[in-house]
Amino acid sequence: MPGSFAIPHGRWSLRGLIAVSIVLTGCFLSLHPVVTTSDAIFDPRLLGRWELDSGVYAVITRADSQTYEIRLTEDGLTGRFEARLGQLGGRLVLELQASPGDKAMQQYAPLVIRGHFLYVIELRDDELRLASFDREAVRSAVRQGEVQLEIIEQEDTWMMLDDTRQLRTALGALLSRTGMLDQDDVVWHRATNSGGN
User: Fold this and answer.
1) Which of 14, 136, 155, 173 is the most exposed, having the fewest neighbouring CB atoms within 10 Å of its CB?
2) Residue 188's CB: how many other CB atoms inside 10 A?
3) What is the chain's pLDDT, residue by residue, as a tens digit (197 residues)?
4) Cα separations in angstroms, 18 against 9, 64, 151, 184
5) How many CA atoms lie less than 13 Å away from 48 in the CB half-sphere?
6) Pair 96, 143: CB distance under 8 Å
7) Predicted TM-score of the model (pTM)
8) How far are the Cα atoms of 61, 68, 92, 96, 105 from residue 119, in angstroms, in the given order?
């Protein structure tokens, strides 16, 4: 799940799991950001309310000049995330991290690593398509020495330990190749009468 590598049991665990599991199956996180403040760009087309066919929705607002706030809601439970938009390997990417302002997150802050989750996105006026890296393809590239990444695995979660520079180099190289993205894109549709903030 984006934004946390080891979530303790309790209220945040349930809340975060429900809010985030709707967009992911397994997690591919980095300890350090891939999209830094200096790399971040802003696109107003991201702003507004986006929905999945299942009824889950996300409201994206502008947090500051380089950061978005995302409130992701399913069955009345909401998770909050910070996000930055940027370019990597010639592709548009959106990096999410659990918001430190979430009260439930603050309760467990000393126990949780706020990891960064990277999506490759395609943004159209009324459609937002998100894809994550295919873990088997990345694993193969690392094993064959085609890219250098230090990865630890815990069940369905991967955590990349590399610094930002190495992450941008390795992931940028992977994005320039075919077959590196999971084929199960998550497709969000802009809600009717949705406006941005």
Assistant:
1) 155
2) 23
3) 344 333 333 333 434 433 343 344 346 789 999 999 999 999 999 999 999 988 899 999 999 989 999 999 988 888 889 999 999 999 999 999 888 766 555 555 555 567 899 999 999 989 999 999 998 899 999 999 999 999 988 777 788 999 999 999 999 999 999 999 988 889 999 998 654 45
4) 13, 27, 26, 19
5) 19
6) no
7) 0.80
8) 18, 14, 9, 8, 22
- Angle at which helices 164-175 and 135-143 pack, to 10 degrees? 110
Cβ–Cβ under 8 Å, residues 26 and 36 = no
Residues with Cβ < 8 Å from 136, sequence gap 6 or more? none
SS3 content of the chain, % helix, strand, coil (to 5): 20, 35, 40
- Report d(CA 76, CA 29) in Å as an integer: 26
The neighbour count for residue 37, using CB atoms within 10 Å, is 11
